[in-house]
Amino acid sequence: MSEHTQKEQRIDSPASEKFLTFNLDGTQFGIEILRVVEILKMLEITSVPMWPQWAKGTINLRGRVIPVVDLRQKFGLTATEETEQTCTIVLEMESDQIGIVVEAVNEVREIASHDISLPPNIGGTVDSAFIKGMGKAEGSTIILLNLEKVLVEMGVLGLEPVLNGDPIVEEPVLV
Amino acid sequence: MQNLTLGRKISLGFGLLILITAVLGIISSVQMNSAKDGSELLAHEYVPEMAVAAKVRGASNRVMYQMRGYGFTEEERFYEAAQKELAALEEGLAESRALAEKAENLVKLPGQLKKIAEHRDEYNELVDETKAAIARMEEARGGLDANATQYMNQSNAYLSNQNAAFQKDLADGKNQAELTERMAKVTLINDIIDLGNDTRVKAFKSQALRDPAIMVEAQQNFPLIAAKLVEVRQITRLPRDLEELDGIKVGADGYSMAMEKFLRNWKELQDLGRQRDEVGGEVIAACRVLQEAAEEATTEISTDAAANLAVASTGTLVGLAVALVVGVLLAFFMVRSITGPINRVITGMKAGAEQVASASGQVSASSQQLAEGSSEQASSLEQTAASLEMMASGAKQSADNTRLANSRTQEVRQSVERGQSAMEGLNAAMEKIKDSSDETAKIIKTIDEIAFQTNLLALNAAVEAARAGDAGKGFAVVAEEVRNLAQRSAEAAKGTADLIAGSVQNSDLGVQATAEVSETLEDVVKGVLEVSGLIQDVSSTAEEQARSVGEVNTAVSQMDEVTQANAAGAEESASASEELSAQAREMEILVEDLSALVGGGSRSAAPMGNHASVAAAPGKGQSKSKPKAVAFGSGNPAQARNRKPDEVIPLEDDMYVEL
């Protein structure tokens, strides 16, 4: 809880923050722009055996092998259909880089801090921890993702151990 | 025999007779020919052979005769005659040779002729020798005379000398011894003279008697003479006397030699005569051979000819007898077989004539009706013709109309075809539009892609700008602008793509519509073609109809003509039927004649029946045939009405049975 508050505070601190928005199943999501390394067209993905389905495999980005995650599948949806607009967003997580496949990249949006509200709490066991906040912009709402939660706590960033040989138990979180 | 035609029967009969005659003629001719050949052989070969043989033989005989005469008499005329006869012999031989060359059957002739020629040559040599011998004899005879004369002259001289000496001695009165010696001398010389005379007498006698033996006897005097001469020489002393004695001696020797020579020649002549006879005999024998051969052949040929002629004569007689018998039989049967059918024909013709007469009446009536019917038909045909004219004009018009319709249909069809080709052009244009739309769509897509990538670049730039913090703010603005441009270009591309999609869709619809129109047009073409075909059918049918109507019209006019002709013909046939009746009558008369010709006795009975039946027939004929009925009625209907042809000619049936 304390960590959560910490973050809100961090959000609150500047007057505004820039987010890269993208679409996923009709919903707009936003990620902090400072996390973004590069937006790529779809590259060839080398699938890796024993990885969970949402971990699509690895890409070779200028000689660097980067794991790629299908966010739709991660969120319990069907696998992303590849279109002309499908993109891979390469993120910088701590020391690792990771790619996420999204349906379409929208824009870089600056959202004022006062326009960001806390994620709605509907109670029960439903975990809304992976949502950093809900950004409001021109009548629409952007779900701002807490990438650490999404990728680390949900086991995405634990892929390295997988690569090292430890099998990863299926995440039941969103299901 | 019964089934044959009359002509065949007659031909057969005469043929048979001719055949027999021909066979007879051929046999006789062959035999005669054989006899003729024999006779010709006789005339040309054997008789001439005989003749030439006889000629040669006669000539030979005469030659021999003359030569014998020449041999005996030594007279030149015999020799000349013999030469003449030899020439005759040559002539005969030449004839014989000619015959031998010409004749084929004279086998012996050439051989004998050769023999004769050889003998003749031999004989000629003998003749020459004979002549030479005779000449030599003449010479010898001359020697004989000369020597004899010398002998006698010398002897006489010596004698006269002695006689003179004796006279002187007597006158001188010589002594006894001298006188005796003188006497002896005279006596001796007288003996010598006597011997000489005797010899000469004998020589002449021998020649006169043709007896050489006498001359041989005379030769015996020469030794005596010689002895006497020796004796007288012993007592002769005077040289003159001695000389005379020498002369006597020479004469005696010459005489002896001449006699010797004469005798030798005489003997030779006699031998030649014998040889001549022998050779001549050979020639004559050869001639005899020829004559005999010719005689033999002649006899043979004559016998053959006689036999052949006898055969020919017998054959001819037998053949004549056969031909007579066959001829009589044939004549008998042929007459029977000819009269039978002819009688049947007569019967048939009679019945036919009756029927013709009755039929001609009916024909007359029918002709009348036909004439009436024909005129009615003619009027209805005129009406028909008028209707047909109308029909024909109608058919012609409809044919014209269909022709017009046909041409219109052709035009429509051409228009539709043009439309079809235009549709094809349209279709191609549509396809082109579609193709270019597709191309455009591709370009738009490329633009869209560029826009997307520009967007991505702008975003990346924005990300970089954000990362750069405040330093990147201006860059962020540029990136934003770039992104906006990319977005707008993407939107524009999207709009264009939508428009092009719409246009592609529309052109697709256009192509589809064109295809439908094309299909419809094809249907139209098909329909037009069908219509055109139908119209053509209709047109041809109409034309056909028009033609048919024309033909019908022609036919009707022809029918009209025919009907007219029929009407006229009916009139004519009515009069012709009358003619026919008259001719039937004539035919009856002819049949009567024929009947009389065949049967003889049936003439009077035959004609009546026909008249009656003919007269009955024309009763049916109406107005037209009346005159004929009258004409026929003039016969004697009652008399022979019920007679049948069989009664009229009663012979036939039996004849048929026999034949």
Q: How many strand units of chain B?
A: 0
Beta-strand portion of chain B reads: under 5%
User: What structural category arises from helix and sheet content of chain A?
Assistant: alpha+beta
Percent of residues in helices of chain B: over 70%
**Poorly predicted regions of chain A:** 1-12, 160-175
Helix content of chain A: 10-25%
* Quaternary structure state of the chains depicted: heterodimer
* 3D shape of chain A: globular
User: Kindly state the mean pLDDT of chain A as a whole number?
Assistant: 76
Global geometry of chain B: elongated
* Residue runs with pLDDT of under 50 for 5 or more positions of chain B: 601-659
Strand order of the largest sheet of chain A: 8-1-2-11-10-9
The two chains with the largest interface, and their residue counts, are: A-B, 16 and 16 residues
Individual helix count of chain A: 4
Helices and strands of chain A, in order, run as HEEEEEHEEEEEEHH
Distance between the termini of chain B: 7 Å
Most strands sheet of chain B: none
DSSP strand (E) fraction of chain A? 35-45%
Overall pLDDT confidence of chain B: 80
Q: SSE order of chain B in H/E notation? A: HHHHHHHHHHHH
Tally the helices of chain B: what do you get? 12
Architecture blueprint of SSEs:
The complex is a heterodimer of chains A (175) and B (659).
Chain A: H1 2-12, E1 16-24, E2 27-32, E3 36-41, E4 55-61, E5 64-70, H2 71-74, E6 87-93, E7 96-102, E8 104-112, E9 116-117, E10 131-137, E11 140-145, H3 147-153, H4 159-164
Chain B: H1 6-73, H2 76-102, H3 108-172, H4 176-209, H5 212-219, H6 221-235, H7 239-468, H8 473-599, H9 606-616, H10 626-633, H11 645-648, H12 652-658
Helix pairs in contact in B: 1-2, 1-7, 2-3, 3-4, 3-7, 4-5, 4-6, 5-7, 6-7, 7-8, 7-9, 7-12, 8-9, 8-10, 9-10
Account of the 3D structure:
The complex is a heterodimer of chains A (175) and B (659). By secondary structure, chain A is of the alpha+beta class. Chain A has 4 helices and 11 strands. Chain A has a 6-stranded mixed β-sheet with strand order 8-1-2-11-10-9. In chain A, strands 3-6-7-5-4 form a 5-stranded mixed β-sheet. The relative contact order of chain A is 0.20. The N terminus and C terminus of chain A are likely disordered. Chain B is mainly alpha-helical and 659 residues long. Chain B is elongated, with a radius of gyration of 80 Å. The C terminus of chain B is likely disordered. In chain B, helix 7 packs across helix 12. At the A-B interface, strand 3 and strand 8 of A face helix 7 and helix 8 of B.
